[in-house]
Amino acid sequence: MPNPSAFLPGPTGLGTSAARLFAQPAGGFAVPQDLGCVPGPRTVRQPPLVFAQRPWADGSMPALYCPLAVRVDHALGELVNERLVEWAEKIGLHEGRIETFRQTGFGHLVTLAHPDVDDPDRLLLAGQMNAAWWACDDYYADETDLGADPQLLASRLALAMSALDAPPPADEFGDELEAQLKSDPVLVSLTSARDHVAVHSTPSQLARVNLTSFQMWVSWNAYGAWRQSGEPVEAWRYLAARQHDSFYTSMTLSDIVGGYEVPGNLFYEDRVHRAVMRAGTAAVIVNDLHSAIREAADELPDCNIVLLVAAERGCTLREAAERAVALHNDIVAAFEADCHELRAIPSPELHHFLWALGGWLGGGLEWHGTTNRYTTEE
Ligand SMILES: CC(C)=CCC/C(C)=C(\C)COP(=O)(O)OP(=O)(O)O
C-alpha cells in the first residue's frame, strides 16, 4: 500500500510528526489511583500506528487524517466472512439477500478493525455482533424497502433490548416474549451474537456491550421521531445524537476480541471516555461520508452529516463533505493527542485498547473504501 503521506501534504497541527504513536509517554498530570490497572508487559502484536493523510473515494476530496490500516489479510477476512455467512444462513438472517450480505464483507471489516487478533473465532464474535447491530439498523431503522418503519421503531428496539438481556422468566408472559424473540431473525441474531460475546467476555464487558447498544438505540429513536415529525434536524443536534450511535459501539468489543479487559473504572474515566468517543465519532463520520448518496436515495432519507450540512447551509454536497472531512480530521488529531496524554496512566490494557481504537479507525476507513455496501444498488 502506498504511504499517502509521501504525496499528500501533512497537517500543520497535531500529529504532523506523528508517524509513531506511543513512542513518548507524556507526563504532566496525576495518575489516578485505584483504577484496577493490571501492570505488566503484554506480548501482543502492536506495531506503531502510522497516522497519515489518506485519500478516499475517487481521490478528489480532501484527504482523511487517519491511521493506516495495520493489517490487510484478505484470506483471513474471507475465512471470517464465510463463517459469518454460514451463521447468518443458519439463523435465517438476510433470507433472500444472503449474497448481498456476503459481498458487504463484515468479516473483512472486523479483520481489518481488530488487527491484533488472528483467531477467527474471536473475530467472528465481532462480525456477528456488528452484523446483528447492522441488521437492526437496516430492517428496523433505515431501509424502508426492507421494512424499516419509524412508527414501529421504538417498539422493535424495546424487544431488541430483551434479545440482548432477557428478563428473568415471568410465567406465561415470559413464554410469549421468548416466542417473539425466536420469531424474528434480527432478534435471533442479537441473542446469538451476544451469547458468543459472553463466551469470551467478563460480566462487566458483556454489560458494557449491552448498555452501549441500548444507548445507541436511544439515538435511533430520536431519528425515528424526527422522520415521523418531518422537523428539520440541525447538524449540531444530529452530531450530538451520533455520539452514542457510532462505531464506539463496535469499539467496545476491542478488548473482548483481543482477550484482555480495560477495567470498568478506567474505561469510563473521563479522559479515556472522551478519547473513545472521539474515535467512535470519527469512524462514523467516515461512514456518513461514504453513505451519503445511498442514504439520500431512501424515500425517508436517513440522517447524515453531509446531507444535513448541505441542507442547513444551502451548499453543495461536495462542500458539505469537505466540512465533514475537516471535522473528522480535527477529531482524529484530538484523539491522537489523547493517546499520547493517556500514556501516563500505567495500564498496559488501556494502552493496548487505545492502540486498538487507532487500529479500528485505520481498518474501518479501509473497509468503507472497499465494501460494495455504499456503491451498489440492490
Ligand atoms: C455499531 C453498529 C455496527 C451499528 C449499526 C449502526 C451504525 C452506528 C452504523 C453502522 C453507522 O450508521 P449508519 O446507519 O449510517 O450506517 P450505514 O450507512 O447504514 O452503513
TrEMBL record:
Domain of life: Bacteria
An example Gene Ontology molecular-function term: metal ion binding
Enzyme Commission number, as recorded: 4.2.3.118
Known catalytic reactions: (E)-2-methylgeranyl diphosphate + H2O = 2-methylisoborneol + diphosphate
EC class name: lyase
Cofactor: Mg(2+)
Listed InterPro entries: Isoprenoid_synthase_dom_sf, MIB_synthase, Terpene_cyclase-like_2
Keywords: Lyase, Magnesium, Metal-binding
GO biological process: terpene metabolic process
NCBIfam families noted in UniProt: f2_encap_cargo2
Entry's family note: Belongs to the terpene synthase family. 2-methylisoborneol synthase subfamily.
Protein name: 2-methylisoborneol synthase
UniProt organism field: Nonomuraea endophytica
